[in-house]
Amino acid sequence: RWTLRMSNLSEMNRIKKLLLVVLLSSVAGVTPFAQNINKTDVKSIMKRVADWQIANPNKDAEHDDLDWTHAALYMGMVDWADLTEREDSDSTYYKWLLRVGQRNHFQVGKRMYHADFIAVGQPFIDLYIKYGNKKMIAPVMARANWIVDNPAETTLELDYRKSETLDRWSWCDALFMAPPVYAKLYALTQNKKYLDFMNQEYKVTYDFLYDKDEQLFYRDWRYFGKKEANGKKVFWGRGNGWVLGGLAEILQVLPKEESSYDFYKQLFVTLATRVAELQSPDGYWYASLLDPASYPSPETSATGFIVYALAYGVNEGLLDKASFMPAIEKGWKALVDAVEPDGKLGYVQPIGADPRKVTREMTEVYGVGAFLLAGCQIYKMIN
Question: Which residue in 27, 41, 167, 328 is a FRET match for 379, CA 20 to 30 A apart?
Answer without folding.
Answer: 27
